[in-house]
Amino acid sequence: MNENFYGSINIIPFYKSYIFFLNCENSNFCHKISFLREFFGNIILFFPFSKALEIVLQKKLTFKKKCFYIFITSFSIEFSQYLFNLGIMEVDDIILNFSGGILGAYLLNCPKKVFKFKKCTKPY
């Protein structure tokens, strides 16, 4: 698959990752860093998305709604790359963006559930 062909679609999940690991010993350091940046960058990009969405909408969202918005936004970004010939629409980018968004939705709400503090009514 030609990586420089804009306006194309890659529907094979993690195809580039598979090719990278097949040729890992032949890759130089810059290529390895580029792969890691792209892989983890897609996850990190959507990590704060659900919290930012709640701030913008000014309301608390259920986990299902967060999942829906994360998926629709990720899909829309990838589809617009295909539609406007700005990049390659890749299914693994959708999967990684969705994974990062879900991970962020869970971890950014986790401290509220784990650390429940009681008010102290007696003065010291």
From TrEMBL:
Pfam families: VanZ (PF04892)
Entry keywords, A to Z: Membrane, Transmembrane, Transmembrane helix
Membrane recorded as keyword: yes
Segments forming a coiled coil: none
Domain of life (superkingdom): Bacteria
Organism: Flavobacterium chungnamense
Keyword flag DNA-binding: no
Annotated ranges, domain VanZ-like: 8-108
Transmembrane segments: 69-88, 94-110
Protein name (Swiss-Prot/TrEMBL): VanZ-like domain-containing protein
PANTHER family for the chain: MEMBRANE PROTEIN, MEMBRANE PROTEIN-RELATED
Higher taxonomy: Bacteria, Pseudomonadati, Bacteroidota, Flavobacteriia, Flavobacteriales
